[in-house]
Amino acid sequence: MVVENLHDNTLEIIENCLDLLTGEKEPSYKKFLNHCYEWIGKRRSMYSSKSDLRQLLNALMKYVNNVNDSLPFNRFAKKYKRYDKLNIRQLTRLRLLYETMKSWNFSTNIFMVEYEKLTDIERCQHYIVYKTINICAVYPEYRDYLDKKDNGWNNTGLVFNTSVITEVVEQIKIDTTHVTLKLRQCLNFIDQRQKEDCNIFEFLSDANLQYKLGNDFKGCLLVRFDNLKSYYKKSPFPLDLLPPPIYKTDILYQSERYENTYIPYKYLSSGEKQLLNNFGALIYHLRNLDSVTDNKRLYENINVFFEEIELYFHPEYQRIVVKMLVEKLHAIDFHHIKRINITFVTHSPFILSDIPLCNVLFLKGGKPVTEKMQENTFGANIHGMLRNGFFLPSLPIGEFAHDKINRLFERLNGYKLDSRSQKQKEWFYSNIMRIGEPYLREQLMKLYNMHYPTYDNDRY
């Protein structure tokens, strides 16, 4: 993950914030503003001397330089309130960044140095500051908290209440839910670096494996998950101890067939990626919901919908996907979730063969159909279920052939045929024998023999 610094991305990171700015005469704040002023100065083509942003900075610099308080901030704010709020927000965001850094006891220098020149600890601090602000903007429990505190501003909207950000930071420090997971990874990384004076991921990086993989992973840290678990000796392994989001990460999968072969995620097949993405996304969100500790928002009952889960799946994956899903869910030690209801929207008979008929709802045009399969779907022969025209849309065949085969099933299933008509017998037989898919042909022949039991089928 790459986090850009203030110089690279000032305008984008400052748009959504509070309404008005306050000033402060602390030397560190003045230094912070000086850097912002220098940054604007290097972009003369974007910000002329008459731009709102430059005028606001000029006035603010004049205010913080005034030792005798001859220019009260109320006068400053009142005068410049008429300017475009976006520009005021930009300066307000600078103040919010500054207060957040102070509350975390971080140096403001982390925003004054090019990101590539920051140390690993400084990059983590950089991320923590932005993540703190993002948490306050995104998650209701923190957004509601700020609302109750007048968003950190007094009721006139002019003077910033610095204690509010400090209170939010203290609340974040004791939050162990999914909301603060990546932030906790950064804090744990900083703590480990300061205690042991080494980067644990550099320490555990497998140089031999890196040599075997060649130039594709040159300069990377290759850490076996088993080694990470052995180092911390914790079971189950806490996600807080995974690498912090300052790193770009990839996952290597060891081949079951070849011991020394490792496959990067990007080289997996589309079906393998789909399988991992489906299960990974589900488990990720279930763990997040289960981590919520607010009694008003405890999630005990979960509904999960899979829309055409068989897409991109090899037939073998379709056959085992339900079993794999159940096994993965059983392996999770949920604290609050007690019941999970899963609904599959599917055309695949492979999926259906793992579902009892009483739990199946057949749809056509988005509405339930009255006619359904007579045989029980659970444990049924996958190819036997294909006699029901419901499944034919999912077959990988041409549309013309699909239509012809579907009509054969419909006529042999739902029509009363004249068993004495030799012409009709020959017509059905010749059309069935043209079908190349042996299982479809076999199912149609079974229906055919029900209507014409005396016909000589030796050729079949």
From TrEMBL:
Pfam families assigned: AAA_21
ATPase AAA-type core domain location: 251-353
Swiss-Prot/TrEMBL keywords: ATP-binding, Nucleotide-binding
Any one GO MF annotation of this record: ATP binding
Protein name in the entry: ATP-binding protein
Organism: Phocaeicola dorei
